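debug: dumping io for the single-chain case to check the tokenizer round-trip. Nothing else runs in this session.
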Amino acid sequence: MEKRHRIFIAINLPEEIKKELFSYSEKWPELPAKWTDKDNLHITLEFLGALTDEETGEVCVIVKDVAKRHSSFSLSLNQILYGPPKKIPPKMVWAEGEKSKELSLLKEDLENSLTEKVRFVPENRTFAPHITLARISTWEWKGIEPDERPEINEKFELPFTVESIEVMESELKRGGPVYTVLESHNLK
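debug: decoded output
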């Protein structure tokens, strides 16, 4: 049986943005959550799931072509909150970014190009750029009295320039997922 790889397409963050976001892991020490390693912080554009080597190669070619059609653009992260919105109990703490026309066009182009060649089902919901900062332990969360649960709603302005998109592999290990950049493609 051919080995499969857990593949996703992401925007990796500049080091200073990762440091800033990771610093919030110290702000809520009482939160029953596993915080994401600083080096794993990213925005997922598409999660493609378990792909063969051949399919992964096709994805790399598609992402390279899509990247050539889009210019780099600015994106701003603007708040940290529980996610997904309106989910009770919350599953994560995430940093959310403002929606942008450039990001929407890039994601739409990726989806359209990928569905022509690779078997995957695009998420059927409005895309809001977000970065998973922590995964909450639901069982422990339910054990905290509602009025003792930390309120998380930080507003800030963290702008950065998106200059590339990456084809990434996720390997699930005992200590948590390990992400590897398979290919990085600069936007024009």
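debug: round-trip ok. The chain is about 25% helix and 40% strand.
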